[in-house]
Amino acid sequence: MEKNKIYRAEIIGYSGDGSSIARIHDMVVFVPGGAVGDQCDIRIVKVAKNYAFGRIENIIVSSKNRIEPECPHASKCGGCCYWHLTYLEELRAKKRKVQDAMQRIGGVKLEPEDVCGSDRIYHYRNKAQYPVGRNDAGVITGFYRARSHDIIPMEACLIQTEAADMLARCVRQWMTDNHIAPYNETTHNGLIRHIYVRTGFATGQVLLCIVTKSPKLPAIDALVSAARTAVPGLVGIVLNINKKTGNAILGDSYVTIWGSDTLEDVLCGNHFRLSPASFYQVNRAQAERLYETALAYAELDNTQTALDLYCGAGTITLALAREAKSVIGAEIVPQAVKNAKENAKLNNITNVKFICADSGQAASMLAHEGTHPDVIVVDPPRKGLDAATIDAVGQMQPKRLVYVSCDPATLARDVKLLGEKGYKIKKYKVFDLFPRTAHVETVCLMSRTEE
């Protein structure tokens, strides 16, 4: 295999990050933008010991799964990777991604029950986070180029809401009119870092959060007036102050400059008040299907108890509470726990208790106290479960464990580790909450093996 040399090959699969895969001289080559069945001329751009990276120079025979991308930024923006595929092919790729990880990492031979596609693949995201920068034309917003912090400027995004795009344009114009500088990651000068918009699909409410380096914001009245005019459904404008120099989008401090610091939405029949810091699935319709499956897997009745780790604003917790005797929710973000308690009151649900703690600490504490829930539900971030949580699950010995995962690799790893604690996977189902991106969700049921 030689760098810069062109080879003719067929695309035979997809990698976990959404790239396509070819095999040249018995070596795996990762190629962005390919579709299974493409016959291409591929230029090798990097050669490692056991694999290589290439780019498509010419498509000789186009795959039946290939379509013309609808997004004009698809080849540059790092947010989406599947605009060139039919949606059916994207679903096949995501199902295979989960199944491959479960087999290769988790040693699971079981196939998923199904892959649940999204009815909506445009403007489905209820959360948008736009980095703010500057180019020769002035203030820009958009999304990062793949594997970089170069902002690809864009007026509109096909997976964000039109209200979010409108507020991004509104804030850009406000910054230009009032000579407010975007934050510069290199010099650490400037003020505005990100524009963050949440939308309640069931209520139409919109919350604008502006991430700044300082709590001192000029021309506030002009911002409020412009934003309210642009989006009539706006219910609040919040500042998030992030003085750190790292990649984290949100800081720890919030200041409400107009209206409410939360918005309301409805999920699985429950009403929720959500702050900018609250975890909430970005695709509401698909989240309802995901949680309905999680509830079915839990098999709760009004005599049983449940523990919901990584509970966020209580979306799964409150759904569980309607079918269980009692539920405990644990979450490390204080503002999310505050929202969760308010949401329980808002829905007149009294059989829940919330703990503000790291999942591992909360699970260990409950195990030490002798708590033995019938069902534990976990919905961790991409890094999966930590060792303390897995150990505590083993100590509490629930009959069933329902694992909601946003990363197939860490799910498969944890399934294997939980197997060592006496749990066996019974079934799992794949859900596409993120059409046109490489991300995918999985719901997995594990139960205790017979003693």
Task: Describe what this molecule looks like in 3D.
With 451 residues, the chain is an alpha/beta fold. It has 3 domains: 6-66, OB fold (Dihydrolipoamide Acetyltransferase, E2P) (Beta Barrel); 95-119 and 283-448, 3-Layer(aba) Sandwich (Rossmann fold); 127-267, OB fold (Dihydrolipoamide Acetyltransferase, E2P) (Beta Barrel). Helix content is 25%, strand content 32%. It has 9 helices and 22 strands. It has helices at residues 87-104, 162-177, 220-230, 284-298, 315-321, 334-346, 359-368, 387-396, 408-419, and strands spanning 6-14, 20-24, 27-31, 39-47, 51-61, 115-116, 127-135, 138-144, 151-153, 192-199, 206-212, 234-241, 253-259, 263-267, 270-274, 305-309, 326-331, 352-356, 375-378, 400-405, 423-431, 441-448. The strands form 4 sheets. The chain has an 8-stranded mixed β-sheet with strand order 6-21-22-20-19-16-17-18, sandwiched between helices. It has a 7-stranded mixed β-sheet with strand order 9-8-7-10-11-12-13. It has a 5-stranded mixed beta barrel with strand order 1-2-3-5-4. β2 and β3 form a beta hairpin. α1 (87-104) runs parallel beside α9, α2 (162-177) packs antiparallel against α3 (220-230) and α7 runs parallel beside α8 (387-396). The chain is globular and about 65 Å long. The termini are far apart. The model has no long low-confidence stretch (mean pLDDT 95).
